[in-house]
Automatic annotation (TrEMBL), chains A, B:
This is NADPH-dependent 2,4-dienoyl-CoA reductase, sulfur reductase. The keyword Transferase does not apply. The lineage of its organism: Archaea, Methanobacteriati, Methanobacteriota, Stenosarchaea group, Halobacteria. Belongs to the class-III pyridine nucleotide-disulfide oxidoreductase family. Its cofactor is FAD. Residues 6-313 form the FAD/NAD(P)-binding domain. InterPro entries: FAD-bd_OxRdtase, FAD/NAD-bd_sf, FAD/NAD-binding_dom, FAD/NAD-linked_Rdtase_dimer_sf, Pyr_nucl-diS_OxRdtase_dimer.
């Protein structure tokens, strides 16, 4: 008898990576239910579409529906899975005009995460979160003068046309507030500046890019200012003001007139599909998974932004929703379900972000207090060193924060900022961290040296030397 | 009684790193004998001085003699050590006008390497090796029209003025031959092109940049051609033709009229100082050293381009003269002699080179035959992948060759080429190799992803996926 299909809930990074890998390994059936119309899009590309450096919205799609069909994946868009019955091994699917139960042999929940709006009224015109192609399309339309809007920007995809049309008809903003100085906030500051909008960036804590540490922020904040962004740190945004359309933002009692607010205040895992199943949860309510992406429910996997993962440094459960690890976890689950048990891999919290010309990277545990909480005895140093030999033109000071454990010497985390090939250097640290290298071993690595690319002692090695000297 | 000083032979990377580290750790005496006048210069910067992207010759100095004096190092320039008596623990020093014996408590031989000229007559005007500041100064003078030469190019250093004056008086060349397509050859092709000289590059084997493998060369060679360099591979240079000044080069029987020839045909360790001591030798006659830089002679260390080192992949003795490992080995010997035993570290053969816009890197064992010779069962794959998300502008195809051992899965080596941040990505592979990661572990690394810097799957990860699939 034919086995029931492998059912995947969610048609983005983790879900389609799983379905694709599964189909490469087996000819069994896989069904992907996606509640929306868009599938397989690059979330991280949204700011660059808004900025205008990506021509068409559909350029952000990795796979078209026909690519997906060619892979033998049964993709059902506009199909929302509203319930899971782990005992019966069925999901209940709401397809709009019908509702049905779909049996599964194995299930993958890959429903991702959603942008939150905090306590703010996100229903006003001119208020956006950056999540999903429709929000980017709407914001792009809003930023464009009504007589200048070109629908060719959308490409040929299932865009929410009513929302685009509505926003395209409004007068474009000249002033914007960005609430939240994380990746999205910083990337949107660059994007909106490129679109000619004056930007105020509000960050609740003491510095932007909190997970990158203070030293990176000390490079980024003056650079944002230099490029015309007004940065407010230790700032509490009280409310958004407006009737139909946003008119102002009030922060610490001060009123800033704006016609645009972008909310980058956080994301939450989309776990509702498993409500009522008693599935085990981890940090932030994310679905708890093991080394193979298995949940506490039989034959139910979770992967990507909805799921927890093991942290490479602490070995404990964590929730860090990012693109590569979502793709990888999905791919691993696809292989596992197909019969080739494949670990999803640890997450090291590696992240890189561009802020105008400034490149920033971070990995592992950068914050000393967090390292102490995890049971380490952290030693942290920040250095600056040239990105190239001093005599070679075009280099830039590169700032490196390196954190190690005093007891074992192990590298725990690091962060990097600079204008010249700085971000990609975090990969050296990510590799060292996942390989459990000590800082003395890091110091002795035979890294690249040539005047146009690195001084004799790469900034990463300089940091390692200084931290080794403190142990 | 005062101990005899720590004596260092050679005042460049390894020697001065050793002396500096020694003085930071102890107040004992250190004497550095340098036979020439230049100390502490950046050999790797010479092509960029010739190119004109470095303003003054003395910009290539890391430390001035007064910096060195401030560190408490007794530097004696123009002092050649002509013999070592390991039994008596003395060196014989020829200071030009006097010759004396200097006792030592410990000795470091850091005499570096020299460029060879093969069978070619390097005494003709217009024939250069790129080794030492004087050769770069002379070539720069030769490249400049007599009435345009500005001695300010030299800065304020102990340059060989007669050689510069002689070359500055000659008509500048319009056509050049570079013999040897290694790093120096490729870098000089770029430098001479920038100086308006038409370049023929002759490489004896089938492709340029031999240690980087064929796939890198397949990117570099067309790029050199595109930039106006004529590349001759599988080419044997028969002889240089000329009376006083070079007039032509003959390769495979064909005559190429040139006014300049740059010889980049290899380097040899400067071991003569230990002739007659019976010191043990390794590959290429380099001085054999152990994990702490000790030679077979009591109290005699060697470091840098004159010494062997342990290869990170094979664990066997090798001779790979490069800048970082010379600096590091010297520094480690300085610490060890000061009383803090410090391993010199392995070498992984990490190298990066810029060829116009093309960035290339390599590490470990790239050549399958060499891997087999070292006892591995190599699996090698070459892939190309984007350096950025496909929709983000400014990226370039990045070529990655990855070599792993079929039996253990261990990463053995890799090479990279591309125009967008390609070279520095080799550090990821260097770290993985020195940490003994398998290719499956490499594939699961949490590396950086953001559209401006890397696609979801970095080219290194794509290569790891493909090689893992072949194991």
């Amino acid at each position: 008898m034919e086995r029931d299909p492998f059912v995947v809930v969610g048609g983005d990074a983790a879900g389609l990576s799983a379905a694709s890998k599964f189909r490469r390994e087996t000819n069994r059936d896989v069904v992907v239910f996606e509640r929306g119309q868009w599938v397989s899009y690059a979330h991280c590309g949204l700011p660059y579409f808004v900025e205008g450096s990506v021509d068409r919205l559909t350029d952000l799609l990795s796979l078209s529906p026909s690519d997906i069909a060619e892979r033998g994946i049964d993709l059902r868009r506009g199909h929302e899975v509203v319930a899971v019955d782990p005992a019966a091994r069925t999901v209940t699917v709401d397809a709009g005009d019908e509702r049905f139960d779909q049996p599964y042999s194995e299930l993958l929940v890959a429903t991702g995460a959603r942008a939150t709006t905090g306590d703010f009224d996100a229903s006003l015109d001119g208020v956006f979160t950056i999540h999903g192609l429709d929000s980017a399309a709407a914001l792009d339309a809003y930023l464009t003068a009504p007589d200048a809007y070109d629908p060719a920007r959308l490409g040929d995809g299932p865009v929410d046309e009513a929302r685009v049309t509505h926003n395209a008809a409004l007068d474009p903003p000249t002033r914007a507030a960005i609430v939240g100085g994380g990746y999205v906030g910083v990337e949107m500051a660059e994007a909106l500046t490129a679109r000619g909008v004056a930007v105020h960036l509000f960050q609740r804590s003491g510095h932007v890019l909190q997970p990158f540490g203070a030293a990176v922020a000390e490079r980024v904040e003056p650079h944002l200012t230099e490029r015309g962004v007004t940065v407010h740190t230790d700032a509490t945004v009280d409310r958004l003001v407006g009737d139909e359309r946003i008119e102002a933002i009030v922060a610490d009692g001060e009123r800033f007139p704006v016609e645009l607010a972008v909310l980058g205040v956080g994301v939450r895992p989309n776990t509702a599909v498993l409500d009522g199943t008693g599935v085990a949860r981890g940090p932030n309510g994310a679905i708890r998974t093991d080394a193979y992406g298995r949940t506490s429910l039989p034959a139910v996997h979770a992967a990507g932004d909805v799921a927890t993962a093991r942290h490479a440094v602490t070995g404990t459960e964590t929730w860090i929703p990012l693109g590569l690890t979502a793709n990888r976890a999905g791919r691993a689950v696809g292989a596992t379900v197909a019969g080739d048990p494949t670990p999803v891999g640890d997450v090291a919290g590696t992240a890189v972000v561009k802020a105008f010309e400034m490149e920033c990277g971070r990995v592992g545990i950068v914050d000393e207090a967090a390292a102490a909480d995890a049971g380490f005895d952290p030693v942290s140093e920040t250095i600056t060193a040239g990105s190239r030999s001093g005599y070679y033109p075009g280099g830039d000071e590169t700032t490196v924060t390196l954190v190690a454990d005093r007891t074992t010497g192990r590298v725990l985390g690091g962060a990097i900022a600079g204008r010249d090939r700085a971000a990609i250097r975090v990969d050296t640290l990510a590799t060292a961290i996942e390989a459990d290298l000590t800082v003395a071993e890091l110091e002795r690595l035979d890294l690249a040296y040539a005047p146009p690319f690195s001084p004799v002692w790469d900034p990463v090695l300089v940091a390692a030397k200084v931290v080794t000297g403190k142990l």
